[in-house]
Design a protein that fits this description.
alpha+beta, Beta-Lactamase, 6 domains, 8-stranded mixed beta barrel, 6-stranded antiparallel beta sheet, kinase activity, EAL domain-containing protein, PAS_4
């Protein structure tokens, strides 16, 4: 038998081409089916993952927005404290974030959704039976398609459980599959269209193909096979210009479109992954503490900020127990209880606890916590985000403590004080200001609009404290003056209460208050009633220009008036100056005592004034020396007045009533004419020369020195004293006498004052009142002061138990070499500085306050002490007293010697003592010469005393049992 006969058509080219075309068609169909199936599968996977991610993202956002547990309350479902039924705001926000549908079910019923139909939200409808069974009954998550009113949705369903684990609803997030189905359908129809087009092309050209079609067809088949394997990246390149090439181009377009669609799908998945990554990255790098704990309290995640703050490394804490590492030992039991409550869902959402760093330091953290649950609602762990509030808490505590401390200090300040804030409302009003104004704290705290000015001025207006905030010139004019030191303002004001003379004086101080950033947050003003001080100061100012015993001008006022007379003399109006000395006055003091001498001086002044014109100035220079300044007077008139005065005293017998004695005295008078060629020092020098000439000439006489005469030739006594002083410096003829300064209360010696004495060439002592003015006039005092300092220092070395005060003259206050010598001697000789003190007169200190203050502060830094001598007879002012940093105030003897019989002097002494005590200084009373004076000083609580009653000056220091 022969072989079966094969039809000829089988061998035809058309048949072969047809076979080839059939293979191609089958390949195309296979490619379309495989590609379509692959697209469907990828779309399903992407849709499911997208739904899962959006469900978790929406859940996190919902927890952050409404922290707390799910619960059914009064028939409605709650998240934390917020009802979810009809809460479309949060649903729409989550929908906007996820880009899809969002629904909350109470049970199986929709109670809040962003899905609408015909403009209405489809609340009240139920979930499908299948979803209800899987999610509500089985309690597991469900991912799949769902038909919602005829629309397909790819969704994710998660059971919602309350704190007891009961499933009370469903949390749903999804998106419409319409777009995916449309995409797949449009792709499928594109493929079908391409397939139909290809088929039509094949059918139309089937008979036109030749053997030359074999290669491009094979290439096309290969491309189709690649597409069948899912290779959408390899470009289809068939290089023919015929129909096969066109077909290949169509395949390439289809491949390109499929590749683009697949790329878009892949990018969507990448964006989703990035979103999740950003959330994790946010927790890692946020500037707050972030930690996730499992249900056993072990650390499963912590961010860099927590590690940096605590000093631990990640590998040291991960999977370790949080309480063991981060909670201080004394807080661990409490922390364990708190963690248990949090896991059970009963702990506080926001709480502040301490953590302990690796180095052992403690930090205070304010925590926000959220429970992490699985699909069944079981607690898997806790996520906590915290803020380090340590510095803020400490700052607040310090601020509260400082504020309360300030209020306590202000409340008990002795000065009337109030505080305002930056809004100028009163925030503090102490007891002293309540007593001063009669306004209670409860009636003014919190008030503004210048309420604090009304109790003082009777009206609402700016006062000193307001100048802290604004430089108001009108307010400044309300005060006598306003001074500023750094940020503090000082002012003095007078508030009349009944005429110009009646009223009160206030000393005011205002300072700004700052916060920790240096910003002004308020101001404080203190008010001190200085009315009594001002009145005493006026009295002291009077005493500064007048002699306290005789009530006539003193040397200072004479010198000031002399300057005015000299100015007139330069315009041609001459005058005259008389220097007067009481002959043998010392005899009265020595025989009858200082009280008799004082009474005699008062009587002499009365006698002299009776023989002078009202325009003539009679002044006391000190001791028994006086001066008369005559204005518009010729030489003849001056000599006439001088002779008249001399005769009136010479011919009078002055009776001392209190001492039942009558005394005959005489005057020695020196006269000088004041013309335009002289200065004040020259006039005083010539008058002094004339006086010494009168005394050297036998006393009880008048001597005149012409203005042009060289006074040094005639100053025999002065020259004698100068020679004696210089010789004494060379031959060491000075001596130190020591007079004790005694405690008034305890009768114990505080220290001794070193008093200088001079021996003349005959060995007789010369009174300091005689040679010191001459030494000052001729520039010898610095040498004398140096001698005194040298020998005083040696005395301190020789007698270690001795405390000594040294007098420093005004001219030596500017001697830098003497100051350095004192400092060096104290340091090199090993003398305890507190054993050494210095006395300067008030007059010398006030003449150059800066220089005096410089001297005092420099030696006080070493530990030396200072006393202000003769207080009350010079330029006395409590203002100066505040500026001079002296330790002791020595009240001048003119106030002390007769205070047991003069109430005015008692008042002045008491005022000086009170002010000194207020300024932290001790008082020393001079010229204490009897028991009555000492008793008065004890009544006034004066600290220390010095005088003949307590001890006379002696060549060596005396003990208390040696004192009179």
């Amino acid at each position: 038998m022969g072989k079966p006969k094969v039809p000829a058509a089988v061998h035809s080219i058309r048949f072969k081409i047809s076979l080839i075309i059939m293979v191609v068609v089958i390949g195309l169909i296979t490619t379309v089916l495989v590609t379509t199936r692959y697209m469907h599968e990828e779309a399903k996977v992407a849709a499911r993952e997208k739904a899962k991610s959006e469900m978790r993202l929406g859940g996190v956002y919902l927890d952050c927005k409404f922290p707390g547990d799910w619960a059914i309350v009064n028939g409605q479902i709650y998240k934390g404290n917020t009802v979810m039924n009809g809460n479309y705001g949060i649903i729409d926000e989550i929908g906007a974030i996820t880009g899809g549908a969002c629904t909350i079910y109470q049970g199986a019923t929709r109670v809040a959704t962003n899905i609408t139909r015909n403009g209405q939200r489809i609340v009240g409808t139920n979930v499908s039976d299948e979803v209800s069974r899987i999610v509500l009954e089985d309690g597991v998550e469900y991912f799949g398609e769902a038909d919602v009113l005829g629309v397909k949705y790819q969704g994710a369903y998660q059971p919602v459980t309350d704190v007891h684990g009961n499933i009370i609803g469903i949390w749903y997030v999804g998106f419409s599959k319409t777009s995916i189905n449309e995409f797949v359908e449009s792709s499928w129809w594109g493929i079908i269209s391409s397939f139909v087009l290809v088929m039509l092309m094949i059918v139309s050209i089937i008979w036109l193909f030749t053997k030359s079609l074999d290669r491009p067809v094979k290439e096309l088949v290969a491309a189709a096979n690649r597409l069948a394997r899912g290779d959408l990246d390899t470009k289809i390149t068939v290089k023919t210009r015929d129909e096969i090439g066109f077909l290949a181009n169509s395949f390439e377009k289809m491949r390109s479109e499929l590749s683009q669609q697949y790329s878009d799908l892949r990018k969507a998945n990448q964006l989703l992954a990035k979103s999740e990554g950003r959330f994790v990255d946010l927790l890692k790098h946020i500037n707050m503490l972030a930690v996730i704990l499992d249900d056993k309290g072990r650390i499963t995640f912590c961010n860099d900020y927590l590690l940096k703050l605590s000093g631990w490394e990640l590998e040291e804490v991960i999977n370790e127990d949080w309480i063991s590492i981060f909670v201080p030992k004394d807080k661990r039991e409490e922390a364990a209880q708190v963690f248990k409550q949090m896991v059970e869902g009963t702990g506080e959402e926001i709480a502040t606890y301490e953590i302990e760093t690796k180095s052992g330091n403690r930090r205070l953290i304010q925590w926000h916590k959220r429970l992490i649950r699985d699909m069944k609602g079981n607690v898997l762990g806790i996520a906590r985000i915290g803020e380090d509030v340590t510095e803020r808490y400490l700052a607040e505590e310090n601020l509260r403590s400082a504020h309360q401390q300030l209020l306590n200090i202000i409340e008990f300040l002795p000065d009337a004080t109030f505080v305002i804030n930056k809004d100028k409302k009163v925030i503090a009003w102490n007891k002293a200001i309540e007593e001063m104004t009669g306004v209670a704290k409860t009636d003014i705290i919190g008030k503004g609009d210048y309420a604090y000015s009304v109790p003082f001025y009777g009206e609402q207006r700016p006062v000193l404290i307001d100048l802290i905030f604004l430089n108001d010139q009108e307010a400044r004019r309300k005060y006598n003056y306003v001074k500023r030191k750094d940020k503090t303002l000082f002012a003095e004001t007078f508030i009349p209460t009944g005429g110009e003379e009646l009223g009160v004086y206030y000393w005011l101080t205002a300072s700004p208050l700052f916060n920790t950033h240096g910003e002004v947050v308020g101001a404080i003003e203190s008010i001190r009633d200085i009315t009594d001080n001002k009145r005493v100061e006026k009295r002291l100012q009077y005493l500064a220009t007048h002699d306290s015993l005789t009530n006539i001008p003193n040397r200072y006022m004479l010198e000031e008036t002399l300057k005015r007379v000299l100015a007139k003399a330069r315009r041609g109006q001459k005058g005259a100056l008389l220097f007067i000395d009481l002959d043998n006055f010392k005899l009265v003091n020595d025989t009858l005592g200082h009280d008799a001498g004082d009474e005699l001086l008062v009587s002499i002044v009365r006698l002299l004034k009776n023989n002078l014109r009202a325009s003539d100035m009679l002044a006391r220079l000190g001791g028994d020396e006086f001066a008369v300044l005559l204005e518009d007077s010729s030489l003849q008139e001056a000599l006439h007045v001088a002779e008249k005065l001399r005769i009136s005293v010479d011919e009078s017998e002055v009776c001392l009533v209190m001492h039942r004695h009558c005394v005959n005295l005489s005057l020695s008078i020196g006269v000088v004419v004041i013309d335009g060629t002289l200065n004040s020092q020259k006039v005083l020098s010539l008058a002094d020369t004339a006086l010494y000439r009168a005394k050297d000439g036998g006393r009880n006489r008048v001597e005149f020195v012409p203005p042009g005469e060289d006074a040094s030739i005639h100053l025999s006594r002065t020259n004698q004293l100068v020679s004696i002083i210089k010789a004494a410096l060379k031959e060491n003829r000075f001596e130190l006498y020591y007079q004790p300064v005694v405690s008034v209360e305890e009768k114990k010696i505080l220290h001794y004052e070193a008093l200088l004495r001079l021996k003349d060439d005959k060995g007789d002592l010369v009174s300091p009142g005689k040679f010191i003015p001459v030494a000052e006039r001729f520039g010898l005092m610095p040498q004398i002061d140096r001698w005194v300092v040298q020998h005083s220092l040696q005395k301190l070395v020789d007698e270690p138990a001795l405390n000594l005060f040294i007098n420093i003259s005004g001219v030596s206050l500017g001697d830098e070499e003497l100051l350095e010598y004192i400092e060096e001697a104290i340091n090199t000789r090993g003398i305890e500085p507190s054993r050494m003190g210095f006395e300067i007169t008030e007059t010398a200190a006030v003449r150059d306050l800066k220089r005096a203050e410089y001297w005092i502060l420099r030696l006080k830094r070493l530990g030396c002490r200072f006393a202000l001598d003769d207080f009350g007879i010079g330029f006395s002012s409590f203002t100066y007293l505040r500026m001079i940093p002296a330790d002791f105030i020595k009240i001048d003897g003119s106030f002390i010697s007769n205070m047991h019989s003069e109430p005015t002097n008692v008042a002045l002494v008491q005022a000086i003592h009170t002010v000194a005590r207020t300024l932290g200084k001790k008082t020393v009373a001079e010229f204490v010469e009897n028991k009555e004076i000492l008793s008065k000083l004890q009544e006034l609580n004066v600290d220390f005393a010095q005088g003949y009653y307590l001890g006379r000056p002696a060549p060596k220091p005396q003990d208390m049992d040696e004192l009179e």
